[in-house]
């Protein structure tokens, strides 16, 4: 594999989460020379760095198990299965099907996915600058512990979550949220060990304990029913998500303050959890390197996915992927609502949602993809990010826009076994 720090590249992908991995692999499948840049020392995105250990969006909601994402996403699940992780979906309390994850398996699967795909990878690396000429990005500045260097490419994919590349390139940005605060709250999932097999989470008893705590505490627990609690594959640890906090998700001061508060709450919550029968010896196995961010900013796209399209389950001839997860909107800490998808149970994602409005060779995936305030609650999830990532990678490799290249994009996606 060539040194990613040298030479010219066809496609540079920023962000090594589900969207970024998928974009890099799909671009490389076209024969493109691809480099993937990730700031952590591992791939996997929120599942690995924030312990958001559930893939949402792989399946439609309903009584039957209907797949909504294939292609690179399916390949990733196959790798997980090959190392012994059960990837069978489970039905959550919201009635949606999710795939629970082991974070170490996710990291390993990410390495295998990009290695098998022929992608050059730069870990421990941040994009810290971008050069734009005549409406196109010509190069990015990458910084690691050794210093800064420049990488040039024909096209770029922003799969960074926080739209870092788009912001550095001066793209027109938006914060279009329906939350009570500027953006939807973040969550700090916690991995819990020390609970014997067969011990079930007593939700009614936990709700009583939380209610007692909330009557006198200055820092109440917003999820009064105890939040999300599942046994994880491989380890059989419990995955517990009941900490929600408001943060801008961008500035070190605000994000760091939220994470410090989240850790304090995790240890406080552990004391409450230990009052449940069978949980007396429970302990915190891990929290993620960062809190789980739902929303910060995103670039304006050439055609947003809309809440109206999702409510109607709109189909379109140029669709590049399926948005099947309900519009999950977190209005405030502990307060979430789901709005189901209409029609056949999914809506087609427009190719224009994956191209920045004002930079011709900047493509968008995952949380950076274009969506209005309601549709964002569906498109941001990790299962769907595999689909937007795969399509954005193909678009970047072909270096075409939504109008000139929709047929070529769809042909390549079909050849890669994507579901469109």
From TrEMBL:
Keywords: 4Fe-4S, Iron, Iron-sulfur, Metal-binding, Oxidoreductase. It comes from the Bacteria. Transmembrane segments: none annotated. Pfam families: FAD_oxidored. The keyword Iron applies. GO terms for molecular function: 4 iron, 4 sulfur cluster binding; metal ion binding; oxidoreductase activity. This is FAD dependent oxidoreductase. It comes from Xaviernesmea oryzae. The lineage of its organism: Bacteria, Pseudomonadati, Pseudomonadota, Alphaproteobacteria, Hyphomicrobiales.
């Amino acid at each position: 594999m060539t040194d990613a720090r040298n030479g010219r590249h066809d496609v540079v992908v920023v962000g090594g989460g589900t969207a970024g991995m998928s974009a890099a692999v799909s671009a490389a499948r076209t024969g493109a020379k691809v480099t993937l840049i990730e700031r952590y020392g591992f791939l996997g995105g929120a599942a690995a760095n924030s312990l958001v250990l559930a893939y949402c969006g792989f399946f439609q909601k309903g009584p039957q198990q209907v797949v909504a994402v294939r292609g690179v996403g399916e390949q990733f699940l196959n790798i997980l299965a090959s190392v012994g992780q059960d990837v069978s979906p489970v039905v959550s309390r919201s009635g949606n099907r999710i795939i629970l994850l082991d974070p170490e398996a996710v990291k390993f699967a990410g390495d295998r996915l990009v290695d098998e795909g022929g992608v050059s990878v730069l870990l421990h690396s941040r994009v810290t600058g971008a050069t734009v000429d005549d409406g196109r990005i010509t190069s990015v500045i990458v910084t690691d512990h050794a210093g800064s260097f420049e990488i040039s490419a024909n096209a770029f994919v922003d799969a960074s979550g926080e739209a870092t590349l788009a912001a550095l390139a001066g793209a027109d940005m938006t914060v279009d949220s329906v939350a009570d605060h500027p953006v939807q709250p973040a969550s700090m999932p916690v991995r819990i060990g020390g609970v014997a097999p067969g011990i079930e989470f007593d939700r009614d008893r936990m709700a009583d304990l939380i209610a007692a705590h909330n009557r006198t505490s200055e820092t109440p627990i917003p999820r009064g029913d105890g939040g999300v609690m599942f046994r994880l594959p491989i380890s059989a640890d419990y995955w517990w998500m009941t900490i929600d906090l408001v943060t801008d998700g961008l500035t070190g001061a605000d994000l760091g303050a939220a994470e410090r508060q989240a850790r304090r709450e995790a240890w406080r919550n552990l004391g409450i959890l230990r009052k449940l029968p069978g949980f007396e010896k429970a302990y915190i196995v891990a929290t993620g390197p960062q809190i789980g961010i739902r929303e910060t900013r995103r670039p304006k796209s050439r055609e947003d996915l809309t809440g109206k399209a999702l409510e109607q389950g709109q189909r379109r001839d140029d669709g590049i992927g399926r948005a099947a997860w309900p519009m999950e909107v977190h209005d405030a800490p502990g307060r979430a609502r789901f709005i189901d998808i209409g029609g056949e149970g999914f809506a087609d994602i427009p190719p224009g949602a994956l191209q920045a409005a004002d930079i011709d060779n900047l493509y968008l995936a995952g949380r950076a993809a274009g969506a209005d305030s309601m549709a964002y609650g569906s498109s941001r999830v990790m299962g769907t990010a595999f689909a937007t990532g795969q399509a954005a990678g193909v678009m970047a490799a072909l270096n075409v826009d939504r109008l000139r290249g929709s047929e070529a994009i769809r042909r390549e996606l079909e050849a890669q076994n994507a579901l469109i």
